[in-house]
Design a protein that fits this description.
Elements lengths: L3 E6 L3 H11 L6 E7 L3 H9 L7 E3 L5 H5 L4 E4 L3 H13 L3 E4 L4 H4 L3 H12 L3 E2 L8 H10 L1 E10 L8 H5 L11 E7 H7 L4 H10 L7 E6 L6 E9 L2 E9 L10 H15 L7
Parallel strand pairs: 1-2, 1-4, 2-3, 4-5, 5-6, 7-9
Antiparallel strand pairs: 7-10, 8-9, 10-11
Bound molecules: nicotinamide-adenine-dinucleotide (NAD).
Nicotinamide-adenine-dinucleotide (NAD) binds next to helix 1, helix 4 and helix 10.
């Protein structure tokens, strides 16, 4: 069987892990054909660590039509802006896509609907890995029977909120927090406006479950937290679900959880393997 030809947009923390996996354990079913990053030095750094270099590299979004013709799957792991810049043109060209900056689908009005309509028309797949959370499988299954509520609680050390405008506006002094303090309670839709660093987790849960207005989010500064912790509570016709993830940060980018890169690799594995375990 022919190998799946892959193009990766974004050569940062997640992109590097993904490309290394394509270059090693996934190499029997996939090949890296194209690397895109607006910073050419990031492409160069990544290529140095690859046994099989991609045929093409690019640092802008011009003339995509021609180069997208040479790949089967485009993976976005760059930024929210890159979803419109690269994912939409890839779909229009009839290519399957994977999106890591899933927050874009909550933040840009109409983008999700556009994505859905083009992918239906072109019969393409849009893969959205679970990213830094777990429990998406149970949430999706539960949604079939009916969900009553979805709550996400994110706990981080107070230093993780430094520079956050919403926290500043509330007059909260992060350095004086001695016991856990709730910074925000509201809908996922409101949460992503005030806590953009939380946007991907809130978006994945909203898309898999009951939408961004009904999904509730609580953000807590916890001086005893050493890692970013996400707790998900779901209640529905199926019963109750509770998941807690204590994320280790990625070495290359401490804002990104290592699990996010691993979940993208796991999604790639499921694309290239005929047997799919899990919902
Ligand atoms: N789904 C999830 O749960 C989850 C978890 C963590 C991170 N993310 C998202 O995944 C994305 C990548 O994360 P990362 O930690 O690898 O980031 P990173 O900053 O380590 O790397 C991003 C790379 O993409 C490049 N880039 C950014 N915008 C670009 C554009 N418009 N065109 C071309 N290149 C561009 C940058 O130059 C950089 O090399 C981010 O948007 C992040 O928010 C999602």
């Amino acid at each position: 069987m022919a190998k799946i030809r892959v193009g990766v947009v974004g050569c940062g923390a997640i992109g590097s892990e993904l490309c290394k996996a394509i270059d090693s354990e996934l190499s029997s079913g996939m090949e890296l054909k194209l690397l895109i990053d607006k910073h050419p030095e990031n492409i160069e750094r990544l290529c140095k660590n690859l046994r099989n270099k991609p045929d093409r590299t690019k640092s802008d979004s011009t003339k995509l039509d021609k180069i997208f013709a040479e790949v089967d799957l485009i993976i976005e792991c760059a930024s929210q802006a890159a979803v419109r810049e690269f994912v939409i043109p890839a779909l229009k060209k009839g290519k399957d896509v994977m999106i890591l900056s899933v927050g874009a689908l909550l933040c840009e009005e109409g983008l999700f609907e556009e994505l859905e309509s083009i992918s239906k028309e072109k019969r393409c797949k849009v893969y959205i890995p679970s990213g830094a959370v777990a429990g998406i499988d149970g949430l999706k299954s539960g949604a079939v029977g009916g969900i009553h509520s979805v709550e996400l609680t994110t706990r981080k050390p107070p230093s993780g909120f430094e520079g956050n405008e919403y926290v500043k506006g509330k007059g909260i002094d992060l350095s004086s927090i001695e016991k856990e303090k709730t910074l925000f309670i509201g809908s996922a839709k409101e949460a992503v406006k005030h806590f953009p660093e939380n946007v991907n987790v809130a978006a994945s849960l909203s898309l898999a479950g009951i939408g961004s207005e009904a999904t509730r989010v609580k953000i807590v500064a916890d001086p005893f937290a050493v890692e970013n912790v996400h707790e998900i509570k779901v209640r529905g016709e199926f019963g109750k679900l509770f998941v807690r993830v204590e994320n280790v940060p990625s070495i290359a980018n401490p804002k990104t959880s290592y699990l996010a890169a691993l979940s993208a690799i796991a999604t790639l594995k499921s694309i290239s393997y005929p047997i799919r375990v899990g919902t």
